[in-house]
Amino acid sequence: MFEGGHRLLFLGGLLLWLCMASPATSELQRLQHRAKPDGTLSFLVVGDWGREGNYNQSEVASQMGVIGEKVDIDFVISTGDNFYEDGLTGVDDPAFSKSFADIYTAPSLQKPWYNVLGNHDYRGDVEAQLSPVLKEKDSRWVCFRSFVLDAEIVEFFFVDTTPFVDKYFTDPGEHKYDWKGVEPREEYLSNLLKDVDSALKDSSAKWKIVVGHHTIKSAGHHGVTVELVELLLPILQANDVDLYVNGHDHCLEHITSTDSEIQFITSGGGSKAWRGDIKSWKPEEMKFYYDGQGFLSMNMTGDRADLILYDVFGQVLHKWFISKQLHDTA
Ligand SMILES: *[C@@H]1O[C@H](CO)[C@@H](O)[C@H](O)[C@H]1NC(C)=O
Ligand SMILES: *[C@@H]1O[C@H](CO)[C@@H](O)[C@H](O)[C@H]1NC(C)=O
Description:
By secondary structure, the chain is an alpha/beta fold. The chain is 26% helix and 23% strand.
């Protein structure tokens, strides 16, 4: 009797709380990953990779293993386009093993992989990539459309960027996209933008890093994603985001902003690269561009983040740091 009454009271309270809190509170799924006991955190970022080891995917993977051990990573972030050409056909698609489980085999890479989806993933069965069945096949796999990862000193905001891009809807060509769970599109996008904005506003983490598949600033083959510049960038600027990290262009890039503190990193060198077409960019913003394969490592404390871009041989291509105390970089 008491138990039941207690429960009802609790439910009533929860409902009341939900009603009052929901307009201002983000609906995004929240995950936690503790920083190391000394308060530091390190991880790798790779994108545009799943090609059954081809196009140097295996070479990049083995160097990720070496560097992952050296910087003692806590996890790996994937910026999407996890499985080429057309995502997964279902939870039993052998591509999951051939392009992921059997490729990233180094001991240092046996950590959680936090994945977003790319446009190629949307050409397959999206729900398969989001399914807990994949986690049973390989416990590293963590994939949601959009979510927040709280890692104490830093909060990551993973944003599902594919539904923003008009041409996938208006001019899909021969490609079929799996928009189940996205349509009606307008509602999906406006809820997502609201959720990202309120999650950023609620965050008290020292660092805020936004991860998406599509570019905001890029001099690569695809260049800027105008829909994100219009809709997402103002939210990042209004909420003191430190970094926006993406894939989509198959290259490595570091671009700063003349009008804000946000730095833009493309880590899309997980496999096929060498597109050869590079657009011009304001020299005062373009810090580094590499057309080939590779990946990013980040090693951070509450006040300082050290970033390194590596090539397919694990050679350092570009390194810099961001300091919270002195403001800015090498
Ligand atoms: C693999 O990497 C090497 C070194 O960067 C490069 O010369 C070669 O073209 C790459 N292979 C492919 C298929 O991209
Ligand atoms: C992280 O960066 C600091 C500062 O550059 C460096 O001294 C340290 O060795 C790095 N740690 C790892 C694990 O790479």
